[in-house]
Amino acid sequence: MAGRGEMDCEMKNLSDQHVNVDTFRKLVRSYLDLHQYNAALFWADKAVTLSGDDPKDVYWLAQCMFYLKQYHRAVHLIRSKELDKTHPLCHYLTVKSLLAASCYSDALQLLTMVENDNSLSRTTRNTSIDSMGDGMMFADCPANLQSSILFLKGQVLEAMDNRELAADCYRQALRCDVFCYEAFEALIQHHMLSSWEEMELLDSIPYTEQCSSPAEATFLRQLYETKLNKYQGPPQQLLEMKSVKFQGQYPETPVLGSAASPSGSVFKSKLALDVSQSSTDSHKSAPCLDDSQPNLVIKLIPNNLDVIVSKAERLFYNCKFQSCLKLTEEVLKKDPYHSSCLCVHIGCLVELDKSNQLFYLAHRLVDLHPEMAISWFAVGCYYYIIGKSDPARRYLTKATVLDRLFGPAWLAFGHSFAAENEHDQAMSAYFKASQLMKGCHLPLLYIGLECGLTNSCKLADKFFLQAQNIAPQDPFVMHELGVIAFQNREYERAEKHFEDALKLVRSIDDSIAEKWEPLLNNLGHVSRKRCKFQTALEYHQQALVLRPLNPSTFSAMGYTHAMMGNTLEAVDCFHKALGLRRDDTFSTTMLTYVIEQLVDDTEPFEGAPDKMPPFRSKKVSTSRAHRIISYDDQNPDDASMNIDEEAGSTPPPMSDTANVSELANVTAGSSALSFEVEMHDSSSQTLDKDST
Amino acid sequence: MSDITFKFDLKQIKTEIQSAIIECSHRGLLHSTKWLAEMNIALKDVDINPAETTSPQSTCSLQGEDADLYTLAKTYFDLKELDRCAFYTEKSTSPKTRFLHLYSRYLSGERKKLHDMTDSTLPPDPTQNSSLRELSAELRVEYKDGKLDAYCLYLYGVVLKRLELVRDAQNILVEAIQKEPLHWGAWLELAALVSDQGSAPLTDIPNHWMKQFFLAHMYLEQQMNEAALEIYYLLQQNGFEKSSYITAQTAIASHNRREVDSAIATFRHLHKEDPYRLDNLDVYSNLLYVKELRVELSQLAHHVCEVDKYRVETCCVIGNYYSLRSEHQKAVLYFQRALKLNPQYLSAWTLMGHEFMEMKNTNAAIQSYRQAIEVNRRDYRAWYGLGQTYEILKMPYYCLHYYKQAQQLRPNDSRMLIALGETYEKLDKIQDALKCYFKARSVGDIEGIALLKMAKLYDKLQESENASAAYIEYVTDNESSQAGEKSEVSQAYKYLANYYIKRNMFDEAYQYAHKCLDYEDTREEGKALLKAVAQTRSQTDRELMVGNITMSC
Predict the structure, then answer these.
(1) Distance between CA atoms of A415 and B273, rounded to whole angstroms?
(2) DSSP states of A8-62 as a string?
(3) Which chain A residue has the Cα nearest residue B406?
(4) Nearest alpha carbon to residue B106 among B59, B180, B161, B145
(5) Measured between CB atoms, does A544 come within 8 Å of chain B?
(6) Which of A264, A431, A580, B358 has the largest count of CB atoms under 10 Å?
(7) Are B144 and A511 an interchain contact pair (Cβ–Cβ within 8 Å)?
C-alpha cells in the first residue's frame, strides 16, 4: 500500500511539479525580443530538455546561440540532433551559422546535399515548401524561407568568390520572393550585373503573381527601378512628376543590350547609337507594366529617404553636384548614418572639393563606426582631395580590408595613384575594382584612360569599347573614345564620338553641366582639325560659358583664329591665355609668331594710305595746299580714306594656305602638348565619378 | 548728335528718380542710390506734388514674415555680414529678399577674393572663381525660367561680365535696363562693355532720358569727347545745371581733350562747391601733375587724406603727389594701397605702371599695364605704356602691336603715331614709318619732332629734296619757339648748309652755316662750312669771272 501510496504521491508530485514548456518558450521569445540572449539561452536550453528535443525548441536554442555569436556551438547543436538536413528552419540556421563562422565549404556542402535530396522528392521548385513540409511535419515556417535559403546560398557562393553562380542564386531568390530586397540589393550593390542584365532582371521578376494588387506590383517595380541604371538614359523620371512622358524612353536598355552584347565589333558604338535613337518608337510596343500609370513611388512616398537618395545618386551621375549635395544633406539631417546616402554624399564632397566638411564627416564616422568600410573610405577620400596620396592609400586599403567588395574604395585607391601619374599601379587597382564590380563600366573606363595616358591607344580603345558594352549610353565613355580616336588622328571618328556624347548630354538636360567643358573643347579641337574653324570657335565659346577664364580654351581659340588668318583676334586670344597662365610655352611661341605676322598683315594705322603722300611743306606750299592740310587736321581719317580709295587697292588676302600648313607643322608638337593638357583635364573630370 | 531732342518733363523725371531711389536703397545698391540722390538734389527747384508720388507702394508689397525676413537680411547686409544675410534669405522668394540673397553672395565671394589676395602687385587670381560660377549657373537656370526681375538681371549681367562672357553679359544688361531704366549701375556696367565692343547694340536700348547720360558717359569712355560734351552741355541747359556729376564729367572730357587749363578750372570750381567730394579727384590730381603745380597738388593731397584716407581716389592723389616729388617707391606704395581697396580701379593700375617704368622695373610695369587693360581695354595710356616697356626690352613686334592699339583708341594723338613710326623705323619699314610721321604731322604734332624724324628718313632714303624741305620747316618752326632740342636744330642747320653747298646756292648755305655758329656742338663745323662756302663761292666766282672774261674777250 505504502508503495502504491508512494506512487500516487509521486504521480501527484509530478502533476504538481509539471511545468509547462510553453511558458519557457514564451520566456525565450520575450528575452530574445529584449536582446537578453543569455537569459534566452538558459531558458531555451531548459525547454529543449523538457520537451525532449522538440525540433522547434532546438531551433530556438540554436537561434540564441547564433545571436550570441556562438556559431560553431549552434551548428553542433543542430547537427547533433540531426536536424540540419530535415528541418528547413534548422537547415537555414545551420547554413547561416556556418557562413557567419566563415566555414564556406561546409555551408555549401550542406546546401547542395539538401538540395539534391529535395530535388529527388519533388517535381517543381515552386512547390518545394509544401513537399518539404510533407516530409517534416512542419507547416509554420515562414513562406519566404525558400528564397532566404537561395539568398544564403548566393552569399556563400559570393564569399567563395564564385560570383556568377552567386548572382544566379540571388536571381532565383528574387523570383521566389519578389520582396526579397536583400537579394536584389546584393545583385545591384556590387555591380554584378551590367545594365541590360539589370533590366532583364527587372522584367523577369514575377510581380503580378506575388503581389496582391496590380498597384502594389507597379509600386514594387518602380521602387526597384529607382535603384537601377544610374549611369545612363534620361533620368528625368524621378525628378519630375511628368514622368509618364519619359517612361517610354526609359527602359530602352533591353533592346540596347541585345544589340550591343553579342558581337564585339568595333562599330558597335554606332550600332548602339542607332538603336538608341529609334528606341523611343520601338518601346511603345514593348511590354511595360507602368506605361499608362503615373509613378506611384513618387506619388506615394516622395519623402522616403531611399527615394531621395536614388534621386541624389542620379543627379550625381549627371554631374549636378550642387543639387545632389543639397539632397544628401537633407537626408543626412534626418538620418545621419544612412549608409547608401553617405557614399553619394562623400562622392559629392570630393567632387566639390569641400575638404573641411569631409574632414568632419570622416572623423565622426570613424569615431562612431570604425568597423564600417565607408568610414575609412571617407578618411581616404579626405586625404585624396587634400592631395596627400600616401595616407589616402593607407586608409583606402583599410576600407578594402574591412569590406573586400567595396568598389568605391578600390576606385579611389586607383585615383590616388593616377593623380601621381603612377599609371601601372593605378591600373592594377582599377583591375581589381573591375573584377569586383562586373556590371560597372567605370573601372574599365579608368583602365582605358590610364592606357591612353601611357600611349597605348589600341588597348585603351579596347577597354573603352568594353566599357561601352556595359554602359552603351554613358557619354563619358563616348567622350574618351573620341579622345583616343583624336590621338590616333582619326578625326572623323573622333568628331562622331564627341558629337554623340554631346547629344546624350543634351538629352539629359538642356543646360550642360560644368563637367562637360572638356567635351566642348575637344569638339572645338576636332572641328579645327577638320578645318571647320567657325564651328570650332563656337564650341570653344560654349566651353567658355561653362568654365570661363580657362587659359587652354583661350589658346585653342587663338590657334583657330591664327589658322583662319584672323591675326588680330589670335593675338588677343593668346594674350588672354597668357594672362591667365603665364608659363604656357605653346601660347608664347604662337604669340610671337602671330604678332610678327600681324605687322605684315595690318596697315601702320587705321586708314593709312597705301603710298606715302608727297611731302609738302606748309611754308612753301600755296595757301590752297595749306587749307588741305588744315582740313586734314580736322578730319584726317576721311582724307586718308579718300587716298586709299583712289589707290583702289584692297589689302592682300590674309596668310595663304601654305603659310597655314607651315604654321600647323611648326606647332604640331606643341598642339599635341596642349591636347595632352586637355586630356589631363578630361581624365580628372571622370576621375572622381565614384560608383556607389 | 544734334538730332537728340531734349524734351524733358522734369517733374516726371523727379518722381521717377525718387521712386528709383527707394527701390535701389532697399536693395543695397548704394552707388546707384547715391547717383540718383545727387541727381535728385540737382533738381531741387522742381516741385512735385507729393500726392502724385507712387513710391510707398513698393514698401507695402512686403508683408508679414517676408517683411520681417527682409528687415533682418537688410540689417545683416548693411553690417556687411554677407554670408549671414545669404543664409537667412536662401529660401525666400519675394523679389527684394531674393536679390539681397544673390547680391550678398556675389559681394561675399568678391570680398573673400580680395581678402585672399597676398601680393598687391597681382590682382586676385581670376581662375579662382568657383563662387561666381556657382552663382552664374544658378542665375542661368532662373533666367531660363524667366524668374529674374530687373535687378537680378543686372546682377546676372555683372556676374557674366566678371566671367568674361561679354556678349551674354551685354544682352542681359540691356534686358535689365529695359525693365528698369533708372538703375544707373546697370547703365555703367553696360557702358564698360559697349566701349569694349564698339557701339553695336544701342538699338535695343529704351529711349529713356537716362539714355542721354549713358550715351554721354559712353562717348567719354570712347574718347569721343566732343560728342560727350555736347550732350552734357545740353543736359545742363535743360535743368541739370546743378549736377556735380555732369560738371565733373565735363572736366574729364576737357582733360581727355588735353585742355588742361579749362579742366583744372572746372575741377577747382567743383572742389570749392563740394569740398568733401572725392570722386574723380584722381583725374584732377593727374592734371595738376601734368602742369607740375606742386603746391596745389600738395594741398589737395593733404586735404583728401584728411577727408578719407582709405579711398582709392585719395590713394591715387597721394601717389601722384609722391610721384611729382620723385619719390617713386612711396608712390607705388599708395597705388598698391588703392588696388588693395579696389583691384578694379583702372587709373591706379596705369599710374603704378608709370611708376614702375620710372623705377626701371619693366616686369612689374608690364604686369600693371596688363592689369589695367584687363580692367578696361580702352585705356590708351596703358597700351602706350606697354609699348614703351617692350621698346625698352627691345621687342619691336610686341611694341608695335601695343602702340597700334593705343593709336586706334586715340587716332588723332600724334604721340602714338610718332611711337609707331619709330618702331617701324627699327623694323626697317621706312615707308610705313614715313606714313606714320606724316600723319602725326597732319594731326598736329604735340612734341614737334615728326618733321625732324621725317627729314632724317628722307635723308636716309636720299630724297634730299624732301629732306631739306622738312628740315626747313622744322627749323622755322623751332626758330620762334626756341623749345626744340638744341643739338637737333643745329644738326638741321648743318644739313641744310651742306645741302645748299651741293646745290651751289651759296646765300642760303651761308645763312645756315652761320646759324650753326650759334650752337655749341656745331660751332667748329659751322666755321668749316663757312670756309667751304667762301671757298666754293670764290671758286665759282672765279670760274664765273673767267667765264666773263672769256666772254668779254
Answers:
(1) 67
(2) HHHHHHHHHH---HHHHHHHHHHHHHTT-HHHHHHHHHHHHHHHTS-HHHHHHHH
(3) A605
(4) B161
(5) yes
(6) A580
(7) yes
Which residues does chain B have within 8 Å of residue A598's beta carbon, measured at their own beta carbons? 397, 401
Are the CB atoms for A401 and A374 separated by under 8 Å?
Answer: no
Tens digit of pLDDT for each residue in A184-230?
A: 888 777 666 776 777 777 778 777 777 777 788 888 887 887 777 55
pLDDT of residue B284: 93
Phi, psi of A347 (to 5 degrees): -55, -45
List CB contacts of B359: < 8 A, sequence separation 6 or more.
B328, B329, B332
Query: B374 or B310: which carries more pLDDT confidence?
Result: B310
The residues near A461 (Cβ < 8 Å, ≥ 6 apart) are: A448, A481, A484, A485
Question: How many Cβ atoms from other residues are within 10 Å of residue A613's Cβ?
Answer: 16
Contact B407 A606 (CB under 8 A): yes
Q: Which residues of B touch A547 (CB under 8 A)?
A: 133
Summarize the confidence of residues B6-11 as an average pLDDT: 72
pLDDT of residue A251: 28
Per-residue pLDDT band for A302 (boundaries 50, 70, 90) equals confident
* Beta carbons within 8 Å of A176's beta carbon, 6+ residues apart: A125, A144, A146, A147, A150
Contacts of A609 in chain B (CB under 8 A): 435
Say what the pTM is. Answer: 0.70
Chain B residues with CB under 8 Å of A596 CB are: 397
Residue A55: all three cell numbers together: 525540433
Cross-chain CB nearest to A598 (options B129, B168, B401)? B401
More confident residue, A5 or B457: B457
| Residue indicated by cell numbers 646765300 | B507
Burial of residue B70 (CB within 10 Å: 0-12, 13-18, 19+) is buried
Instruction: Give the angle A358-A360-A365 at the CA atoms, nearest 5°.
Output: 90
Q: Per the CB < 8 Å rule, is B411 touching A514?
A: no
What is the average pLDDT score of chain B?
82
Cβ-based burial of B178 (10 A; exposed 0-12, middle 13-18, buried ≥19)? middle
Return the pLDDT at B50.
60
- Angle at the Cα of A313 from the Cα atoms of A309 and A318, rounded to 5 degrees: 150
pLDDT, one tens digit per residue, over B95-126 is 888 899 999 999 998 888 888 776 555 665 65
Cα angle A195, A256, A343; round to 5: 20
Question: Which positions in chain B touch A640 (Cβ < 8 Å)?
Answer: 439
CB B418 within 8 A of CB B440: yes
Residue B31 has pLDDT above 80, yes or no: yes
- pLDDT surpassing 50 at residue A594: yes
Kindly list the residues from chain A whose CB atom is less than 8 angstroms away from the CB atom of residue B470: 615, 617
Q: What CA–CA distance (Å, rounded) separates B19 from A686?
A: 52
Say if CB A336 and CB A369 are below 8 A apart: no
CB A549 to CB B126 under 8 A?
yes
The residue type found at B270 is: L
By C-alpha distance, the chain B residue nearest A549 is B127
CB contact under 8 A, A632 and B408: no
| Contact: A636, B427; criterion CB under 8 Å | no
With vertex at residue A54, the alpha carbon angle to CA A53 and CA A56, rounded to the nearest 5 degrees, is 130
A619–chain B Cβ distance below 8 A for any pair: yes
∠ CA(A338), CA(A342), CA(A347), 5° rounding? 160
Number of Cβ pairs closer than 8 Å across A and B?
105
**CB-based contact, A354 to chain B, within 8 Å:** no
Share of chain A above pLDDT 90, in %: 13
For testing contact with chain B, the best of A325, A538, A601, A605 (most B CBs within 10 A) = A605
